[in-house]
Request: fold
Amino acid sequence: MEGLMMDYQLNVPAILRRADELYGDREIVSRQPDKSWHRYGYADFASRAKRLAVALRSLGLDDGDRVATLMWNHHEHLETYIGAPVGGFVTHTLNLRLHPDDNTYIATHAGDRVLVVDKVLWPLAAQFVERVGFEHVVAVGTGETPEGAIDFEELIASADESAFSYREIDERAAAAMCFTSGTTGLPKGVVYSHRAIAIHALTAVSLLGISEADTILPVVPMFHANAWCFPFSCTLVGAKQVFPGPHLDPDSLLEAFETEHVTLSAGVPTIWMGILQTLDAKPDGWDLSAMRTMTVGGAAPPRAMIEAFGERHGLHITHGWGMTEMCPIGTISGAPGHERGLGKSEAYDRRAQQGPPIPFVEIRARGEDGLIAWDGQSMGELEVRGPSVASSYYDAPDAADRWTDDGWFKTGDIVTIGPDGYVEVQDRAKDLVKSGGEWISTVALENALMGHPAIAEAAVIAVPDEKWSERPLAVCVLREGSSASDAELRDFLAPSFAKFWLPERFEFVDEIPKTAVGKFRKTALREQFAGGGAVERTQA
Ligand code: AMP
Reply:
């Protein structure tokens, strides 16, 4: 017997239509390059997104054509993010921190036909625009429009909204595209379907408790992993959206949190570490009483940071783990209910773990002898599946080995899983240290070191060793005015780790190199301290 329900398509047009009908007055605000604020309501946003859809069609685009973006987080980026898929096209976010050669490769490989670019980022775009050969360049913001480009405002003004109608776009069609950071090998394209985005937006809404009553400031760039789905989940429920534009320093963000009464924000640990240091220096500097939770993900947040926000500033952290290939959220820890009955310290321990899988993400992990037990001890590579998980990369037949024979995606993360499904990421497979045949988790050592009062940042890498094959080396950044010796740091770690885990070598640097989305770039550290790729493993 077949179910007798409507064949309703889960797509981005359905998200926009809802916002358009229900939330016309809710605000979307963006910080402009000159630090002034741009404000309008969802009604204006929806009208402009629809006109953009019409205008893109008039430029000659067909269904499925890619529209690249190179922009900061702001309302015009949101209009493109949503307007392009609503028109039947595919938004492809380019990362403004990548080298122009990488963006040339990525945009060419994706077959991007149009580039929508911030005028303030034109000097960067100019380095690859011709090489890619976009058919149209659309320039956003005030100031001069580059020669040959179309002004975004003129493009929108030229479109007739009455020519727009919401289409029943097949939910399996592509809506957006994002390339993985590609720390090994060439970057790989992930293609999000309308259905994956709609399901994921709904899950994020329910797990983070996002509603019309929220004001959300995503620090996470819109080009990082689908912006953790916030543009879609916020629009779905009419949450007020606050975009920081190019102003990502702690003072500007804290000011925005206060003046816009932000209730939820999201970013990588580096962002939150900077905010914590600023708050520690000026604990009464800002009124953050509206903030209900700050979401951290993209890399492991140190437990000490989660605790410091809670204990010193009364601020709650929600911790998520995810991947570009997963839309991107896979697990969430610190959601309401997770810490019921736990003491404070145990609750922080738990929140430093990555958490249980979100609905419709299934997990399992595989060690050398097959699938591991969910005992919180055994380690294996995490495998996932679900409706918001990639089933392949775009045009990358050489990467088929990232999926198991029965179709699960191999994450490349080495984890333990507790009896209650709580995942704890031990390392990227390629970052683990194998010393005398035993694994050492660099993430655990880094997190512990970042709990030392003198350490601002710490990254641990494997270095070759004649006797043990590899040993951990800790690269540390000291807090301003602080000092710490190797012996002192080893003594600090000793109570928490087996003796063979303790690094012999500590290196002190001014800054740890970061990837384009703010994670520790361990490949650079290995080149600097471990003699190139000597201990690089092959897994992506
Ligand atoms: P990306 O697709 O660039 O966001 O990178 C995904 C990878 O980032 C994952 O496979 C993890 O290695 C790492 N990652 C993301 N979130 C976390 C987290 N909360 N804790 C530890 N690692 C994380």
Observations:
- The mean pLDDT is 94.
- The pocket of adenosine monophosphate is lined by residues 180-181, 225, 297-300, 319-324, 328, 354, 411-413, 425, 428 (CB under 6 Å).
- Residues 263 and 291 are 4 Å apart (CA to CA).
